[in-house]
Amino acid sequence: MMRLPPFTYLAPRTVADAARTLAEHGSAAMLVAGGTDLYPNMKRRQFEPRVLVGLRAVREIAGVRGSARDGLTIGATTTLSTVAAHAAIARDFPALATAAGLVSSPQLRNMGTLGGNLCVDTRCNYYNQSHAWRKAVGFCMKKDGDICLVAPGSPRCWAVSSSDTAPVLWSLGARVRLVGVEGERTVPVESLYRDDGIEYLTRRPDEILAEIVLPPADGWTSVYLKLRRRGSFDFPVLGVAIALRMEGDTVRDARVVLGAVASLPREAKAANDALKNERLTPELIVRAADLAAGPSKPLDNTDYAHFYRKRMTRVFVTRALRRLAGLDADGRADEETA
User: What's the Rg (C-alpha) of the chain?
Assistant: First the structure.
């Protein structure tokens, strides 16, 4: 049986106190809200903090407020179940409600938080194993080793971004508010990530992701499709988030963002450019999907063969755009049987 290592749990009541506590304990401390990813990783000794700074008692960073006209603010400790079921999110930002509702399983969505999913650890077949398994293969550079077992000649880790909500919030133009001992800052979601399997977040060690700020809906529509083997529980092995700002049948702005194909969400900028100021015809959809497949460069480090996941990028972008164009109104959001 895998057991949690010993740790001290601290429960500050405010974001400021949480940031101070995190800074005081330095590298020995980690944040925890729902703990649905952190605790299993601790059992596998991938994380070994001596102090956990709990955020569940910090009431100021939970809940949803605002409107589609002015934009929504979502507290980072708002559960994924709450986000998925929220009427205004489902109506005005449907891709986010879909993505939150496809994370893991109902039980874990009741505990897991939106902020936690944005910051969820990158994943790899060689890393997400028990300590005994990892020891038997000599460990990897992400924890306890010195080489990437996916690409042994590479100087970096290629673990994969595993968040369902990150590509969606990127496509929606969301921003995040970070609070630390030196003050606070608000940055675009895309600025939160870097292309590195180990240091995949730009959040400073003392900072807490407090809120997610969605801009006004303002004519935007969105969709999220997820590839996974099972109909529940599994992390994405491909996520496709697309947001379009429509004017009649013409696309005025577009953001296509891919998840689980790199160590961070990957924006398909060539596809965005192809879609802008064009009518969303079947021919344009095929061309945009071909362009979107370009930045999708999965490696053989998660479920399904990497060449299949690459091919599915084109398929899923096509499906998502057809759905937004009203051509496939009955398709399912979760496409694990593709």
Answer: 20
User: What are the tens digits of pLDDT across the range 192-212?
Assistant: 999 999 999 999 999 999 999
Give the DSSP per-residue string, 148-169: -SSSTT-SS--PBP--SHHHHH
C-alpha atoms less than 13 angstroms from C-alpha of 208 in its C-beta half-sphere: 32
The whole-angstrom separation of Cα 105 and Cα 338 is: 20
Six-digit token string for 149: 């077992």
pTM for this entry: 0.95
Helix, strand, coil fractions of the chain, as percent rounded to 5: 30, 25, 45
SS3 state at 283: helix
> Shortest CA distance to 100 belongs to which of 87, 81, 73, 121?
81
H/E element, 120: none
- Is the backbone of residue 260 left (phi > 0), alpha (psi -120 to 50) or beta? left
d(C-alpha 275, C-alpha 43), whole Å: 46
**Which residues, other chains included, contact 19 with Cβ-Cβ below 8 Å and sequence gap of 6+?**
179, 180, 181, 206, 207, 208
pLDDT at 2: 85
Instruction: Measure CA 46 to chain center.
Output: 20
Percent of the chain with pLDDT over 90: 95
